Amino acid sequence: MQIPIVYQDYFQAHHFLHLTPIQEQVYPLLLKHQNVLALAPTGSGKTLAFGMPLLQQVQPGGGIQKLILEPSQELAIQTRDVLRTLNPDIQIYGLIGGANLKRQIESLKQKPEVVVATLGRLQDLIARKKIKLQHIDTLLVDEADELLTDQLDNIRSLINRLNSSLQLAFFSATKIPLFKDLHTWFASDFVTVDLTNDSFFRSGLQHYFLKVDNQHKPDILQRLAHRKNKKNLVFCQSSKQLHRLAATLRYRKVYFTVLDTSDPKKRRADALADFRNQKTSLLLTTDVAARGMDITDLTTVINWENPNTLTEYIHRSGRAGRMGRHGEIITLGNQHDRRQLQALLQEAGIKLEKSTLLKAPIAKTKTDNSVSKTAKKRAGKKKRSSKNHRKPN
């Protein structure tokens, strides 16, 4: 399938040469108003996969026609922004918790055609009778594994308020048992597109394991952070571990930023902005905090410890090498950790490559001093004000 003419300028501007497999397979199904369950790895282009056909169906001035549910505020805004770029002529609004409710109510008077929402804020607006649902012809649930696990009853209740001819679409990077019973839960038949094992998305990824004891992990991480032209996303197993690592790096005067669920919304947004704009090459996070996060040019995912499951590993891996680009996955640990990881990856046919990572050109330490004054000030404020910035035990 060729790139649709209406989106060719967008693809050219973003240096996308072709549709990804999920985009190619889902596009005609959604355009034909079929119910779809779409499964594809993180980084496979799912937002564009549903965005292109849904926006192409929108009738200008026809009220809210497409409703997209996201599990988090950040992901809702991220999706809204991608869709706005895809078609600037369509009114696309984001309705999320934590934002000014009165302002959102006023914005709905402008009659948007597409709404991207978090479920809690949407339910609030419905209860207040401030949002019109009668013209909605498509409900799309993104990150459906999470939303259906936590909010199945609420989503079914929402669907009962919408048109009987409603098109349903569920998108996910992970399979859950409930997906086998969608026809039962929603009284509809679904076309399933399952690309979770598609080799296209792994072709640009290299997987490494660096043998190191816990004491010297910060040394290795610091060296990895100083490599040229690399953006490093570091996954910790918990917020507690994340903040201990942050304290260690701060003591070493390594510049980094943190994305954590406990941080205020603005701080999370600033952290992502600094990382995207290359004010720092190191972003520390957890699986929960990074859910659905999109950084298109991410080069490196670093596992501070082994992930607990293969699904966790694949989710993390998909953040690097998005849309088939080159990326590297680096896991740190001892020989026992290596054996555990190899056993975990065997099921997916993923092999660890011989590492030459630290033989690559390393930028001089003065790289840290080139970080913007804004990033330095923000790091200083965190050190003084945040309870998370204590020294490691």
Topology:
Elements: H1 8-13, H2 21-31, E1 36-39, H3 46-57, E2 66-70, H4 73-86, E3 92-95, H5 101-108, E4 114-118, H6 119-127, E5 138-141, H7 144-161, E6 167-172, H8 182-186, E7 191-194, E8 205-211, H9 217-225, E9 232-236, H10 239-251, E10 257-259, H11 265-276, E11 282-286, E12 300-303, H12 310-317, E13 327-333, H13 335-346, H14 373-385
Parallel strand pairs: 1-6, 1-7, 2-4, 2-5, 3-4, 5-6, 8-13, 9-11, 9-12, 10-11, 12-13
Verbal overview:
- With 393 residues, the protein is an alpha/beta fold.
- The protein has 2 domains: 5-194, Rossmann fold (3-Layer(aba) Sandwich); 203-384, P-loop containing nucleotide triphosphate hydrolases (Rossmann fold, 3-Layer(aba) Sandwich).
- The chain is 38% helix and 16% strand.
- The protein has 14 helices and 13 strands.
- The chain has helices spanning 8-13, 21-31, 46-57, 73-86, 101-108, 119-127, 144-161, 182-186, 217-225, 239-251, 265-276, 310-317, 335-346, 373-385, and strands at 36-39, 66-70, 92-95, 114-118, 138-141, 167-172, 191-194, 205-211, 232-236, 257-259, 282-286, 300-303, 327-333.
- It has a 7-stranded parallel β-sheet with strand order 3-4-2-5-6-1-7, sandwiched between helices.
- Strand 12 (300-303), helix 12 (310-317) and strand 13 form a beta-alpha-beta unit.
- Helix 2 runs parallel beside helix 3 (46-57) and helix 3 packs across helix 4.
- The protein is globular, with a radius of gyration of 22 Å.
- It starts with 7 loop residues before the first helix and ends in an 8-residue tail after the last helix.
- Residues 361-393 are annotated as: Disordered.
- Residues 374-393 have a biased composition (Basic residues).
- Keywords: ATP-binding, Helicase, Hydrolase, Nucleotide-binding.
- Pfam families: DEAD (PF00270), Helicase_C (PF00271).
- Residues 204-363 form the Helicase C-terminal domain.
